[in-house]
Amino acid sequence: MPAEFVEQRRRAALEAYEAEPVPTWRRSGFWTTSLRGLDLDALEPKRYEPVEELPQIVRDDLGDEEHAALIVQHGASVVYSHVADERITVMPLEQAVEEHPELVEPYFAKRLPYDEAKFAAGTAAFWTGGVFVHVPKNVQLEKPIQVVWLIDEPGTAQWAHTLAVVGEHSECKLREYFIAPDFEGQALHAGAFELYALPGAQVDLAHYQDWGRGEVYDLSTRRVEVRRDARVKWVPIHLGGHLTKQRLDIITAEPGSDMRHTGLYFTERDEHLDLFTSDKHEAAHTTGDTVWKGALTGDSRASYEGLIHIIPKATEVDTYLQTHQMLLSPKAKGDAIPSLIVEVDNVRASHGGTVGELDPDQIFYMMTRGVSRAEAVRVLVEGYFEEVVQRLEDPGLEDLVRRRVAEKLHGAEDQVREFIGERAEAT
Amino acid sequence: MTLEIQNLHVRTEEREILHGVDLVVKRGETHALMGPNGSGKSTLANTLMGNPVYEVTEGRILLNGEDLTEADPDERAKAGLFMAFQYPATIPGVSVANFLRMAMNATREEPIKVKEFGQLLGRNMDLLRIDRDFTSRYLNEGFSGGEKKRAEILQLAMLQPEFAVLDETDSGLDIDALRIVAQGVNEMREPERGFLIITHYTRILGLVHPDFVHIMLDGRIVREGGPELADELEEKGYEWVREEVAAGAG
Q: What sign for the dihedral angle of Cα A188, A401, A358, A352?
């Protein structure tokens, strides 16, 4: 019997979902994210049978790193789950709701109101499978907990929900992978992610998204709550997706909580990425550090808006936000906006942003050392991202990101060369 | 076995800066190119390396008879030209050691062996009195002026080019740092290598003795001579050259 607290929310959410029109997001008059091209009615939650062996694409991205637990959702079904460390609970959320309601209910959707947006409501109404991660208190995990969201067929609607609770003074690494092979046709991933880092917990969180060349729409909300003296390091990485509209919020909720949020994106072809992140300080003596770096090639569009929000009672906050964006193609269009809402005195909060191109002086300098233009561009872009990649502190994932960035740059070499060449001649 | 600059006219988008420069540097020779600020010295250095900011409208640059006037900077490096920059660019995310290895491999047939690279690097860093932890820092990121100059000379020592242009390497260095840099350059002087030392001041020429001195003014080389010309300049200043040139023209 499904738990009533879940079913009740599903019913209310379904009503909200049906009442809301499909949104179009507009900002500052010229930036629009539209779902006009998405044929929602043609998508369905495709079900799959459990598998013994991991799919090849999952093996390729995960490498042979050992895990504390690994769980894979394919389309609408959890198809693989393996828990190597008996101290923790990692299972489909559907199952956890039935077997461990006492662990799930206190946190389930606590920070995810179903009625805040159309697709938040959709996810709340339609999620299947799902992932529940529970690390009890005083547990130190060395190996990562890995969660994989796989879509490999056009026509798939994947309504996702991950709930993670990390107990007091526990330490863990949590990695979510969002992957798809290249396919022709449309698919949707609409996700909800919530993480609660309880007092004194230390969580090292990464989201790795590479939806490939298919027409995958990703409409997700991810929210992290950091409690007293807890610390969360969060590295979201966006390396592919036809259209991505995400909201990522990290809330330092109690005194002494600390967050470090470092993101990276690389867009190509006609990809459209629209990210909003917020660093919300709800308590005094909380600290934050947010850095986002992006690069754009092809005809892609990428918009990043980052907000620092400090509410009235949150004095003695120390936080900053930086956003950088690099254009590598004349046809790409980007936008990077840092903003601040500070409702109290006696805090330190600062922000900064740059949108730019590769510096011709750097390219010239490297070329005088015998390095070709293409190689110089590759090295400079990789160097630009290196600060973010190193913050992963995870050799397997670092290698994966470096490899994928290098591949993307290699694919974009001609247009970058043309662009840089044009710039050089224009100066 | 010669770097030849023939009747070089160079302009930026705004205006012509070099109005016909001729200069020949043979291997084994060290030349000093002196001149006041804005005389075109750095333009010449940058044009030699193919900086796309500058356009050659007339004249040629030949290295061992090969015309490099239109060549890309990396082809010039492979042909044996090197410039130590006055204001080198910062390369974030790339350590000094990795940058050096990349540059060495770019101009070699076979990649350098790890052990050979390490030994060579150690020796040159000792020579230039550079701390070991320097090589793991990102190239020029947060470097002091003196560290940047030393990193340039370290590259020169590692890459061993046929012809090296030093663009105001001496400026901004205190006397101890200048001695170390000069010692590095002197160690590299040999019959197979040519140097063009560009400077505003005569100070470095007391430490690296040039065979020839050229004085540039307003985009032209106006006086040429032996090392004694530098001494004369030290004594009388650039105004003296300017007056002489004006008198000669009038």
A: positive
